[in-house]
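To the wet lab folks,

You asked to see what we're planning to order before we commit. Fair enough. Below is the target structure as tokens, and below that is the sequence we designed to fit it. If anything looks off to you, flag it before the synthesis order goes out.
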């Protein structure tokens, strides 16, 4: 099945040109609104432009079962935040929202939390940033509202849910004590500063990060910025210039987002690195304007680069930007990654609690591409070998990889399998082959792939796993012309059929609303990045199938 001339598969180049132009036209990036973050801003900053729109967003986003967010454990944090925000609005004097509607929605959310066995054996809690701080802080706020709420028929309820099994308030108390002491605050905590409480926030030594346009952000987070302002009397209408700069940041966020807010904003370097590297890896020609190239060079700093203003530098953003520069013809020694090296792997940021296979796959991409283009030194080759072995050791028995920064194993498996195929050497062939087998076995009857349902994003990752590990030269200006026979581990039945079915289904899914699958305090959708993955898969699959057809008798 070759792509039809002039049909859906033929407009990839034009769409890519528009996408690259959009990286400059919308420099803050495209990120979906977060029920969690929006709930925090509703509660903390009712004075901010678009407050009524944020309340309406929460009411409209409530699921039929009373919860918010996606399925399973990922629903806990957004549901707690939305319930607390609606309770705060219910008690707020002068609210223009219907109190009966607020009470009913909050009561339904509370009931969903009480009936749902979150954190139990059947519903494990996901590895979300600061979840062990966010959950107890929100439960305290909810209990406070219910204790102080006015009596009457509109009362949302009398008690909130308890802590999930295995979670306590000890770490939250410790963090709040640190903040209240006036001691230096670890930068990784600032992104979730809203957990601190009013007294600790008033005493803490957190300085907003300056931004262009006389703005400043706290942890690149609307919620953290709103919390920082809420602890400063009069900051909503006046106050020192630093407070005015944070207000300008919040107003700029809601002006771009239309009221509801994302968890992290802006995401300039993060978006540009992922988008440009994924386009080039798929073999799509990219004419990157000088301004985009200059922004990618932020990753050349010796301490690495951060995703957004006020966030700590991280190996993920740094490595992807370096990889993008190399694929665009400008390889640089990855000096900004050395601070993240540990004895076994690379941490996402210094002080990380946990580890990320995809971060290390991206670091492998950066070092591997540098060695391929520049030769490098023995220490560069040693990193390539070390990370390849580490990633192989983390592969699940079924052939997949999980990761803490994305809810879908199809993302992590694509990152790890493609990096190992490119740079892991012959000893990685077995791991790559098992990944291909897992992808082939996970295809849905309609041709798509997905953890909870078939999605364009996950189908794109699956197709790229098959097409960029199937034969030598898969990442090139033209996809491999040979038959699709799987990985070096041996021939497998059906890869061409899987690609054909997946390509056909991806053409149908490409313009449908996409669910949030990327992990922050809440799940989010980085729209441009996901669109890039889809376009790359369409380009690879369309050209590969066309070439296979032309070689057929």
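Sequence we intend to order:
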């Amino acid at each position: 099945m070759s792509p039809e001339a002039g049909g859906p598969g033929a407009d990839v180049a034009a769409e890519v040109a528009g996408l690259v132009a959009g990286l400059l036209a919308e420099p803050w990036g495209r990120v979906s609104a977060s029920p969690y973050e929006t709930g925090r801003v509703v509660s903390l900053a009712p004075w901010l432009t678009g407050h009524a729109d944020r309340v309406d967003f929460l009411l409209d986003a409530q699921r039929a079962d009373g919860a918010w967010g996606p399925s399973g454990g990922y629903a806990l944090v957004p549901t707690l935040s939305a319930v607390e925000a609606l309770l705060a609005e219910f008690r707020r004097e002068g609210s223009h929202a219907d109190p009966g509607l607020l009470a009913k929605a909050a009561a339904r959310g509370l009931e969903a939390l009480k009936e749902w066995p979150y954190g139990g054996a059947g519903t494990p809690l996901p590895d979300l940033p600061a979840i062990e701080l966010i959950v107890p802080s929100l439960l305290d706020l909810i209990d406070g509202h219910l204790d102080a709420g006015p009596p009457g028929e509109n009362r949302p309820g009398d008690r909130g849910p308890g802590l999930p099994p295995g979670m306590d308030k000890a770490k939250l108390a410790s963090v709040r004590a640190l903040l209240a002491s006036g001691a230096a605050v670890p930068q990784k905590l600032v992104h979730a500063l809203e957990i601190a409480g009013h007294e600790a926030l008033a005493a803490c030594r957190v300085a907003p990060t300056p931004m262009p346009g006389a703005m400043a952000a706290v942890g690149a987070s609307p919620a953290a910025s709103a919390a920082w302002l809420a602890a400063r009397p009069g900051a909503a209408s006046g106050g020192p210039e630093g407070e005015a700069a944070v207000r300008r940041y919040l107003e700029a966020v809601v002006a771009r987002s239309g009221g509801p807010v994302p968890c992290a904003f802006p995401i300039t370097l993060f978006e540009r690195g992922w988008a440009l590297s994924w386009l080039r890896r798929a073999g799509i020609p990219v004419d990157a304007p000088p301004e985009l190239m200059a922004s990618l060079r932020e990753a050349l700093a010796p301490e690495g680069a951060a995703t957004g203003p006020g966030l700590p530098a991280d190996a993920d953003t740094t490595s992807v930007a370096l990889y993008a520069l190399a694929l665009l013809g400008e390889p640089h020694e990855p000096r900004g990654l050395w601070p993240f090296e540990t004895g076994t792997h690379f941490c996402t940021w210094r002080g990380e609690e946990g580890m990320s296979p995809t971060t290390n796959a991206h670091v492998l991409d950066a070092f591997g591409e540098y060695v391929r283009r520049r030769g490098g030194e023995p220490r560069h080759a040693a990193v390539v070998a070390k990370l390849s072995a580490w990633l192989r050791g983390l592969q699940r028995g079924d052939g997949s990889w999980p990761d803490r920064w994305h809810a879908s194993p199809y993302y992590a498996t694509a990152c790890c399998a493609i990096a190992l195929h490119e740079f892991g050497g012959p000893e990685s062939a077995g791991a790559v082959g098992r990944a291909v087998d897992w992808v082939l076995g996970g295809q849905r009857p309609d041709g798509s792939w997905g953890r909870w349902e078939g999605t364009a994003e996950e189908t794109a990752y699956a197709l790229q796993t098959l097409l960029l590990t199937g034969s030598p030269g898969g990442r090139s200006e033209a996809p491999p012309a040979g038959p699709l026979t799987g990985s070096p581990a041996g021939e497998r039945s059906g890869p061409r059929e899987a690609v054909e079915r997946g390509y056909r289904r991806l053409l149908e899914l490409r313009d449908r609303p996409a669910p949030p699958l990327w992990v922050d305090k809440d799940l989010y959708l980085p729209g441009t990045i996901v669109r890039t993955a889809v376009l790359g898969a369409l380009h690879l699959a369309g050209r590969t199938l066309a070439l296979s057809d032309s070689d057929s008798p």
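Structural context that might help your review: The chain has two domains: 8-22+266-551, 35-257. The beta strands are 209-211, 215-217, 518-519, 523-524.

Thanks,
Computational group
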